[in-house]
TrEMBL record:
Belongs to the IlvD/Edd family. InterPro entries: Dihydro-acid_dehy_C, DiOHA_6PGluconate_deHydtase_CS, ILV_EDD_C, ILV_EDD_N, IlvD/EDD_N, Sugar_Degrad_Dehydratases. Keywords: Iron, Iron-sulfur, Lyase, Metal-binding. It comes from the Bacteria. The keyword Metal-binding applies. This is Dihydroxy-acid dehydratase. It comes from Pseudaquabacterium terrae. Residues 366-559 form the Dihydroxy-acid/6-phosphogluconate dehydratase C-terminal domain. Residues 45-355 form the Dihydroxy-acid/6-phosphogluconate dehydratase N-terminal domain. The keyword Iron applies.
């Protein structure tokens, strides 16, 4: 036990269930006697939950069933009592209309599950990319010590003897296919693109989130990039189990002890350094809201100006995450980033970030570059503002064609995702490579924010070799994707944001260096359009989606529910126990 932990030693939460010789104590113990636990076990040992998002329908999380067994073994080895609880699983490519709105539902399930059960600490098992932030958000609000373990990246296979198949490769292939430029055997690609169990293996949202968990200090150092099928991940699971018992025994550190301003700054620094997913901006904003850290979009831009792209990993670079692991993993990345980090930030490991990076080493400087030899020059993630996005919008600059960083073009507006598919290849649209493709009504309220921000390019332009155009939307973009996409425009069109007022042919100006996004239309004309604007009819009359429509916040605040910001300590009335 080191200094990092000594201030805690809070009384065990589980004692309120199990350590009293009264009728409720009798009921709780006798109930779990049926699960094989003795009175002595329950009265003397800390209790650790394993929250598992495993599902047959979610191959990204499929190995979590086996990992939970290893976590369980670790908990038993350290003298704790493990209880595994299944949760809903969010399978990114399967769940309709998009997995995004269910992040908040899973976060609520996590929070209430933790609060309702006699856990002294918890190990969170997630992988596919909405499961991770949901687990973090729920656990942060429940204020119970936790440790996160990801399923790990999949191990991509070669489709046809050529390049390894992965999600970023799918996007490139789709463009080539639409341009009539590939002979690829699509069926072979389809059967191998997900390769093995585990989450997407480039620096998409899942890999970005699990890497961020190390920088936030809520995952074991070096754990995030180990592939799902690698036995080292099983060893990490046992270690997580053992460590969780230590957290349980002393009652901390709790989420709010770790997730402070320093932790978020460190996470944003890493996100920029790996050219990570823009979705993580939304998830970090939401998580910060849970722990009362006043994080804003501006902070991402401030930090982003100082952080070069040092991880040579797709989609901004060349390699997959396994190469990042063999190059030293996140601890090595953090070591390079050391001068930009808060080294005194605490972690669930018990050490500070500074202590962790002391023993880290870069093993492959081609994959993890020094600060002065980045993969590409310039900033990776930028935040732009202007009369088209008064509350901001984001862009993954490192995955876009720099020729579009200063661009002026005429808008071609798509009212919703359906109209893109119907019209994008219509020669009558009058699109050229300077046009600015606009997608609206795809924000958090408008359409539960699907990953449609990388609008497809028109076939006739792809055939002419065009591979990037400026696209602007209130949607998100897959972390595995790339292109000059200005995303998360806030406020969104469906709540009356200026994006709703754009018309075909309007001139739009983007200036990345100036961080400016401007709709070049007279203010009087915009005001006339605003007066004529009608909000879209809300379609959900009942159920969770109605709750979602009524309470989801805008992208620049993380799309959490307004009533979920903040955290509660144990709110269970003492008298009941
Ligand atoms: Fe699950 Fe990419 S589809 S992480
Ligand atoms: Mg996704």
């Amino acid at each position: 036990m080191n200094d990092n932990e000594t201030p805690h030693k809070r009384p065990l939460r589980s004692a309120r269930w199990f350590r009293k010789d009264d009728l409720p104590g009798f009921v709780h113990r006798s109930t779990l006697a049926a699960a094989g636990w003795s009175r002595e076990d329950l009265m003397t040992r800390p209790v650790v939950g394993i929250l598992n998002t495993w599902s047959d329908m979610n191959p990204c999380n499929l190995n979590l069933r086996a990992l939970a067994e290893d976590v369980r073994t670790g908990i038993l080895e350290a003298g704790g009592i493990p209880f595994e609880i299944p949760l809903m699983s969010l399978s990114e490519n399967i769940i309709k209309p998009t997995s995004f709105p269910f992040r908040n539902l899973l976060a609520m399930e996590v929070e209430e599950t933790l609060r309702a059960h006699p856990f002294d600490a918890v190990v969170l098992l997630g992988g596919c990319d909405k499961t991770q932030p949901a687990l973090l958000m729920g656990a942060a609000s429940a204020r119970i010590p936790f440790l996160f373990l990801a399923s790990g990246p999949a191990t991509p296979r070669s489709a046809t003897g050529g390049q390894l198949a992965n999600a970023t490769g799918v996007w490139r292939l789709v463009d080539q296919l639409r341009a009539g430029q590939t002979q690829c055997d699509f069926a072979a690609f389809e059967s191998s693109v997900m390769g093995t169990v585990g989450h997407c293996a480039e620096m998409g949202t899942a890999s970005s989130m699990s890497a961020l968990c190390e920088a936030l200090g809520v995952a074991l150092p070096g754990s995030s990039m180990v592939p799902a099928t690698d036995r080292r991940r099983n060893q990490l699971a046992r270690e997580a189990g053992r460590r969780s018992v230590e957290l349980a025994a002393v009652g901390g550190p709790r989420p709010e002890d770790i997730l402070d301003v320093r932790a978020f700054d460190n996470a944003i620094t890493l996100l920029c350094a790996v050219g990570g997913s823009t979705n993580c901006i939304i998830h970090l904003l939401a998580l910060a809201g849970r722990v009362g850290v006043p994080l804003t979009l501006e902070r991402f831009d401030e930090i982003g100006r100082k952080v070069p792209l040092i991880a040579n990993v797709q989609p901004a670079g060349e390699h997959l995450t396994e190469r990042l692991m063999t190059a030293g993993g996140v601890p090595a990345l953090l070591k390079v980033l050391g001068p930009l980090l808060h080294l005194d930030a605490r972690t669930v490991d018990g050490r500070t970030i500074g202590e962790i990076i002391d023993s880290a080493e870069v093993l492959d400087p081609e994959v993890i570059r020094p600060l002065d030899k980045p993969v590409k020059p310039g900033e990776t993630l930028v935040v732009v503002k202007g009369n088209l996005a008064p509350d901001g919008a984001v862009m993954k600059a490192c995955a876009a064609d720099p020729k579009l960083f200063r661009h002026r073009g005429r808008a071609v507006v798509f009212e919703n995702v359906q109209t893109i598919a119907d019209r994008i290849d219509d020669p009558a649209l009058g699109i050229d490579e300077n046009s600015v493709l606009i997608l609206r009504n795809a924000g958090p309220v408008g359409a539960a924010m699907p990953e449609w921000g990388m609008l497809p390019l028109p076939r006739q332009l792809l055939e002419r070799g065009v591979r990037d155009m400026l696209r602007i939307s209130d949607a998100r973009m897959s972390g595995t994707a790339y292109g000059a996409a200005v995303l998360h425009v806030s406020p969104e069109a469906a709540v009356g944001g200026p994006l709703a007022l754009v018309r075909d042919g309007d001139v739009i100006e983007l200036d990345v260096a100036e961080r400016r996004l401007q709709l070049c239309v007279d203010p009087e004309e915009l005001e006339r359009r605003r007066q004529a604007w009608q909000p879209p009819v809300r379609v959900h009359a009942r159920g969770y989606r109605r709750l979602y429509d009524q309470h989801v916040e805008q992208a620049h605040r993380g799309c959490d529910f307004d009533f979920l910001r903040g955290a509660d300590a144990d709110t269970l009335p003492e008298g009941l126990f």
